[in-house]
């Protein structure tokens, strides 16, 4: 039997502290379709699915249908694969697929260690998104010891995670200000998006797809940081080793992080003197520092070390558009919008 694969899964991270959360904005499917960006994508054959943001954590959500049951999924570029929480799968009567000689399932890890050492491949016979029937992506059933996130106060629970594998397979184009989600079932990449957004003053950041994750070129205090783009993380997290090495100033903010593994991890606020993402110089902001051992697990020799997670608090300030078909991130420079 092949050795198990280790996939660090930094999803559904909640951050409880005095750090400011980005402002919330409502959106609708009609508004997304009639925007210049939406109209351009629809003309290229893209379909729209209604997306929403959680009011407490700035997460981006989309609804899918699997085996006739609707599920609310968190859009998470920090997860290499797509997940369905075990409680939601059991309620819908979705079980494990028969073993047909596939590889041993991956080990899933949260910020504090293994979250589920025995995930199961879900038996999905029908998958729909935005009213369109699609070939189902690989979906794993996992336990979430960290608890299921709610879409808002008194709102329904989130049922799982739409991971980067599915986002790239769907050639998804999505953003959070306002919330929108477009995809092309024929697997065509967006062609006019670059010229449209750059014409409106957006900066393009190329995303490197490595080890099942997106890596972004961030510099903190002039030092290169190898950061994972993690739309499932409410706040940006930097490993304490990097923070000490580049002498980032500490702030009074204190917090606890909780992830899929269910454990709590203490964190503190830090404020870099300078921050650049690609060619974009960014204004001062508070981010979080903690001991992110899960980003450089000793059990995976040869895996390039990560320095942290770039969360939605960071990119959400700049009207982000993520083009998973072309592996690109677009951000509006400060003062452009």
Key phrases:
29 strands, Cathepsin D, subunit A, domain 1, nine-stranded mixed beta sheet, about 15% helix, single chain, 7 helices, 2 domains, globular, eleven-stranded mixed beta sheet, mainly beta, about 325 residues
Biggest beta sheet summary: 11 strands, mixed
Number of strands: 29
Overall average residue pLDDT: 80
Number of domains: 2
CATH superfamily of the largest domain: Acid Proteases
Q: What is the CATH-assigned architecture of the largest domain?
A: Beta Barrel
Helix content: 10-25%
Annotation field: number of helices: 7
**From the alpha-carbon coordinates, what is the Rg to the nearest angstrom?**
19 Å
Oligomer: single chain
What is the name of the CATH class of the largest domain?
Answer: Mainly Beta
Straight-line N-to-C gap: 54 Å
Question: What is CATH's topology name of the largest domain?
Answer: Cathepsin D, subunit A, domain 1
Q: Outline the low-pLDDT stretches.
A: 1-27, 100-104
Global structural class? mainly beta
Shape: globular
Question: Beta-strand level of the residues, as a percent range?
Answer: 35-45%
Describe the structure concisely for a colleague:
By secondary structure, the chain is mostly beta strands.
How does this structure look, described?
The protein is mostly beta strands and 337 residues long. The protein folds into 2 domains: 6-193, Beta Barrel (Cathepsin D, subunit A, domain 1), CATH 2.40.70.10; 202-332, Acid Proteases (Cathepsin D, subunit A, domain 1), CATH 2.40.70.10. Helices cover 13% and strands 37% of the residues. The radius of gyration is 19 Å and the shape is globular. The termini are far apart.
């Amino acid at each position: 039997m092949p050795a198990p694969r280790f996939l660090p899964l930094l999803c559904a991270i909640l951050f409880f502290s005095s750090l400011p959360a980005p402002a919330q904005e409502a959106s609708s499917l009609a508004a997304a379709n009639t925007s210049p960006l939406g109209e351009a994508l629809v003309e290229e054959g893209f379909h729209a699915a209604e997306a929403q943001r959680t009011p407490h954590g700035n997460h981006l959500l989309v609804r899918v249908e699997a085996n006739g049951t609707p599920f609310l999924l968190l859009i998470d570029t920090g997860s290499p694969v797509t997940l369905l929480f075990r409680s939601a799968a059991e309620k819908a009567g979705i079980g494990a697929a028969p073993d047909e000689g596939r590889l041993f399932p991956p080990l899933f890890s949260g910020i504090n260690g293994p979250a589920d050492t025995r995930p199961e491949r879900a038996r999905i016979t029908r998958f729909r998104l935005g009213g369109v029937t699609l070939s189902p992506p690989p979906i794993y059933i996992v336990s979430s010891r960290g608890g299921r996130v709610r879409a808002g106060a008194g709102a329904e629970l989130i049922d799982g995670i739409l991971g980067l594998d599915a986002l790239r397979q769907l050639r998804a184009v999505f953003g959070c200000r306002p919330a929108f989600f477009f995809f092309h079932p024929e697997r065509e990449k967006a062609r006019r998006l670059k010229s449209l957004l750059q014409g409106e003053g957006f900066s393009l950041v190329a995303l490197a797809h490595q080890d099942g994750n997106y890596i972004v070129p961030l510099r903190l205090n002039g030092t290169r940081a190898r950061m994972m783009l993690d739309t499932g993380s409410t706040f940006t997290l930097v490993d304490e080793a990097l923070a000490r090495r580049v002498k980032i100033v500490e702030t009074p903010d204190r917090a606890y992080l909780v992830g899929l593994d269910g454990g709590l991890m203490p964190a503190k606020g830090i404020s870099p003197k300078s921050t650049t993402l690609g060619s974009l110089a960014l204004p001062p902001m508070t981010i979080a520092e903690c001991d992110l051992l899960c980003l450089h697990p000793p059990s995976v020799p040869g895996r390039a070390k990560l320095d942290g997670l770039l969360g939605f608090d960071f990119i959400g300030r700049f009207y982000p558009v993520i083009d998973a078909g072309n592996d690109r991130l677009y951000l509006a420079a400060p003062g452009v919008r």
